[in-house]
Every structure is written in structure tokens, then in C-alpha cells.
Predict the 3D structure of the following.
Amino acid sequence: MSGTVYVILLGVGAVITVVGVVNLVRGLASRRWPTTHGVVLVSQVAVSHDSDAEGTSRTRYKAKIVYRYMVGGQEYMGDRRSFADHSSGSSVRAYRIAEGYPEGSQVAVYYHPGKPQLCVLERGIRVSQIVSGLVGLGFIGFGAAGLLGWIG
């Protein structure tokens, strides 16, 4: 492989790792956030289509939950279920999540005390956040090993 490929792997790994670490830190912090009541406005599954590097098309599904809540007399809108939110190839998973938040239902909303617009319905961390950080580190390691001539 050329040096350019290894540099790209380093860059992709860095982005994945940074996003993973930010979401991991926010997920951990959210365990201490205050809560308020909210109302689910939208609960549906968003479907997107894309293709991979070989041109193979794939369909992705993500539960889209939009809710309204109040903090300090000010109204806010949120759409983050957790800091581990992501789309997947599983429509069953996405529909199961959406069904757990029916439109019009009351929900607990956890919000950042200094930035009430930063909020989640499910606080804490998930295994997927740790895995994404490890995947990013794997890309970085592979890219660095290639640039150092240890592989390929």
C-alpha cells in the first residue's frame, strides 16, 4: 500500500477516535445531569441509502425521536436518544427504539446544567461507544505501522 493510504487511515482513525471519546465523556457526564419532563413530538424511523467503496448499495435505519422540554422557563427541542446513537443496517432495532418513544408520551430528559440544549433521553454509556473508540485506535495503529514500514 502507498503512504497516502496509511495517512488516510490515520486521519479516519483520528476522527473516529475523537468522536468516540467526546461521546464517551458526554455519556459519562450525563449520568450526573439533572432531569426534566419532556413530550415526544416525533417518533419514526429514518431510512437512508448509500454505497460503500465498491459501489454496493446499502440501507441504513435510525430511530428519529424529537422531543420538547423546558428548563428554567425556556423551551428546548431535542433529538438525541443517547450519546451512542447511530444508524444501523437493522430496521428491527430502529423500529423497536421508535416504538419505545410513542408520539405524545411523557419522557425524562437529562440535560447539561450549563448548556440545557445538550440533552439525552438515555444517559450513560454503551458498549458501542467503547468499541467505536477502539476501532478508531485500530485505524490509527494500522496507519502508523504502515507509515513506519512495519507492514506492507
Remarks:
- The mean pLDDT is 90.
